């Protein structure tokens, strides 16, 4: 409906917007594969960005009157560590203290957002370009500019997508994650370190949120306490549209990235054709519901086909159950 939609420049701009949600969704995928949820990633984006802005503006060393201006790479490292620290707390609450993931991360969502407000005392850090004399320049240009014709966030999305895919399909951790998400008790009895897997996935989700916080801060050239607000819902939506099961054990990196592109391109396309912001939310919600309904219908259809193949054309419906019961009694 818009002649500008498939324009190369517009596609790059839309993909840049998608990159933020896609990176968050990769971390959310790991959590959902385990049957959990992380509602704190949006707040973590804001906290990571505020810490980066605070350091770039100058960190007053406690007990002295001196102000330190860390280099760009130190700021980036600290921003990532902030996200990982939030993930560690989430992992401990869920894995060690057995707090329900929804409750644990809901509480952390409010707590972390409050910390983001405290870092800047409710204020926004602007003009984060630094000064050459202080040695803290390059933050915005490093994370905002184009590299080989593509914006830096897109490259980060591509690299993290490849790493996450390899991590899930080529390492023991990936097998542990799918196993523990499908059946936690069976996985534990099989020797899978379930608790360690839970802590690690929340740390990785926090790392992804920290990276997005840095990229968003560089993109805005400002650190905003409300940065990342609502991002957790878009990340969950991308994972769900991509075919992952909220109960855990099913989902792919490819599906998650496709889900992120569906949401991002849909919203940007609606903007191009002049659809009201209010209707955009309605349409996005409808797309999520339809995607889940269709996916569940496909899963039920697949289960029926599998059941028919197992039972065979000449066997009665009760035969599989009888064989199963006989097998169980023989093993006992």
UniProtKB/TrEMBL annotation:
<keyword id="KW-1133">Transmembrane helix</keyword>
<keyword id="KW-0472">Membrane</keyword>
<feature type="compositionally biased region" description="Low complexity">
    <location>
        <begin position="311"/>
        <end position="322"/>
    </location>
</feature>
<dbReference type="InterPro" id="IPR001851">
    <property type="entry name" value="ABC_transp_permease"/>
</dbReference>
<keyword id="KW-0813">Transport</keyword>
<feature type="transmembrane region" description="Helical">
    <location>
        <begin position="12"/>
        <end position="33"/>
    </location>
</feature>
<keyword id="KW-0997">Cell inner membrane</keyword>
<protein>
    <submittedName>
        <fullName>ABC transporter permease</fullName>
    </submittedName>
</protein>
<feature type="transmembrane region" description="Helical">
    <location>
        <begin position="256"/>
        <end position="279"/>
    </location>
</feature>
<keyword id="KW-1003">Cell membrane</keyword>
<keyword id="KW-0812">Transmembrane</keyword>
<feature type="transmembrane region" description="Helical">
    <location>
        <begin position="68"/>
        <end position="93"/>
    </location>
</feature>
<feature type="region of interest" description="Disordered">
    <location>
        <begin position="305"/>
        <end position="332"/>
    </location>
</feature>
<feature type="transmembrane region" description="Helical">
    <location>
        <begin position="199"/>
        <end position="218"/>
    </location>
</feature>
<dbReference type="Pfam" id="PF02653">
    <property type="entry name" value="BPD_transp_2"/>
</dbReference>
<feature type="transmembrane region" description="Helical">
    <location>
        <begin position="148"/>
        <end position="168"/>
    </location>
</feature>
């Amino acid at each position: 409906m818009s002649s500008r939609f498939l324009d190369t420049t517009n596609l790059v701009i839309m993909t840049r917007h998608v990159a933020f949600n896609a990176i968050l969704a990769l971390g959310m995928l790991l959590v959902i594969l385990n049957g959990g949820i992380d509602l704190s990633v949006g707040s973590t984006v804001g906290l990571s960005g505020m810490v980066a802005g605070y350091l770039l503006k100058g960190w007053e060393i406690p007990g002295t009157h001196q102000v330190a201006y860390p280099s760009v790479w130190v700021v980036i490292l600290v921003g990532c560590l902030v996200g990982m620290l939030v993930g560690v707390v989430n992992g401990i609450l869920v894995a060690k203290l057995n707090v329900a993931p929804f409750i644990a991360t809901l509480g952390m969502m409010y707590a972390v957002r409050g910390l983001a407000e405290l870092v800047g005392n409710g204020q926004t850090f602007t003009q984060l370009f630094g000064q050459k004399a202080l040695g803290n320049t390059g933050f915005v240009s490093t994370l905002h500019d184009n590299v080989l014709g593509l914006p830096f966030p897109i490259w980060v999305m591509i690299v993290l997508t490849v790493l996450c895919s390899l991590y899930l399909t080529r390492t023991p951790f990936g097998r542990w994650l799918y196993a523990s998400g499908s059946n936690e008790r069976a996985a534990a009895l099989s020797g899978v370190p379930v608790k360690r897997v839970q802590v690690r996935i929340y740390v990785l989700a926090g790392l992804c949120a920290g990276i997005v916080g840095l990229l968003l801060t560089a993109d805005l050239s400002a650190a905003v306490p409300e940065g990342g607000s609502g991002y957790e819902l878009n990340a969950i939506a991308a994972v769900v549209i991509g075919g992952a099961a909220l109960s855990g054990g099913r989902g792919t990196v490819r599906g998650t990235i496709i889900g992120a592109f569906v949401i991002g391109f849909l919203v940007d396309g609606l903007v191009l054709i002049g659809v009201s912001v209010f209707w955009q939310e309605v349409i996005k919600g409808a797309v999520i519901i339809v995607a889940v309904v269709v996916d569940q219908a496909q899963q039920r259809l697949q289960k029926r086909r599998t059941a028919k193949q197992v039972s065979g054309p000449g066997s009665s419906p009760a035969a599989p159950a009888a064989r199963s019961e006989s097998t169980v009694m023989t093993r006992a």
